[in-house]
Write a structure and sequence with these properties.
The chain has eight helices and two strands. By secondary structure, it is mostly helical. The chain has two domains: about 140 residues, no CATH class; about 80 residues, no CATH class. The protein starts with 9 loop residues before the first helix and ends with a helix.
Length: about 250
């Protein structure tokens, strides 16, 4: 059974994610950024697939956190104010605080968007955008961009299973690395063939026609969600205008 968050209109979830991301990137405060990150995690926690989503988060959070701390915080800091010495290195507390804000912004971005992607089928998200007037060419480009990684993974798994059925044995890291060589060729060729098949399918379905297509399913949208999206967009616009107005006004 889907949760109340999963049943929301795709644009409602997307608008909420954009609001969180916009507020995180416009906020100069570490604690406000931390609060927004917590809100993004709470949004994930109310979704039906929260356990699988939370298991994937470390794959995104850990590499960028470690790299930013090393590069921007310790090795090549932007500022050296409030320095402290630790293990023969001079570390700036202000640089660490600035890196902390960058890390929280990135984590908020990932948490907000990844929750939308994992709880909303890509086709429904693109359909919702198309119903609001998104051109079909842009819809197709976005759809392909969102589906390219899952499609490549499925194709790679199928090729690997076919090779294992023909005697390929993977028992350690060296054998896994050697298995990449026979995997790349069929993967690339399969991707090129898939592109050609998609192009032929688009031509057969009159993709270049000027009339808008009739869809079998229409997404249900409530007035309450429409008002909520309008308020989120209005709040984000006011925040952007206020932030840049205060920053650039004399």
């Amino acid at each position: 059974m889907q949760s109340s968050y999963d049943r929301l209109h795709p644009l409602t979830k997307l608008t909420w994610a954009v609001l969180l991301i916009g507020c995180a990137y416009l906020s100069p405060s570490f604690w406000v950024s931390a609060l927004l990150f917590v809100i993004a995690l709470l949004t994930t926690s109310v979704s039906e697939g929260r356990s699988s989503i939370f298991r994937v988060y470390p794959l995104f959070f850990v590499p960028i956190t470690v790299s930013l701390l090393l590069i921007r915080g310790i090795l090549i800091p932007d500022t050296l104010t409030n320095p402290i010495s630790m293990a023969g290195l001079t570390i700036s507390l202000d640089a660490l605080a600035a890196v902390g804000i960058l890390i929280l912004r990135y984590c908020t971005l990932v948490a907000a968007l990844f929750t939308v992607i994992r709880t909303t089928p890509t086709a429904l998200l693109m359909q919702a955008l198309a119903e609001k007037g998104l051109p079909r060419s842009i819809e197709f480009i976005l759809l392909m961009a969102l589906q390219i990684i899952p499609d490549m993974k499925l194709r790679a798994d199928a090729i690997l299973e076919a090779q294992q059925s023909r005697g390929l044995v993977i028992t350690s890291l060296p054998t896994r690395i050697r298995a990449l060589v026979p995997l790349v060729g069929p993967l690339v060729v399969g991707a090129l063939v898939d592109v050609e098949e998609r192009a032929m399918a688009l031509e057969l379905r009159a993709f270049a026609a000027t009339n808008r297509p009739t869809r079998m399913d229409v997404l249900v949208d409530s007035r309450r969600q429409h008002v909520a999206r309008t308020l989120c967009i209005g709040a984000l616009i006011l925040l952007v205008v206020g932030t840049f107005g205060i920053r650039y006004l004399p």
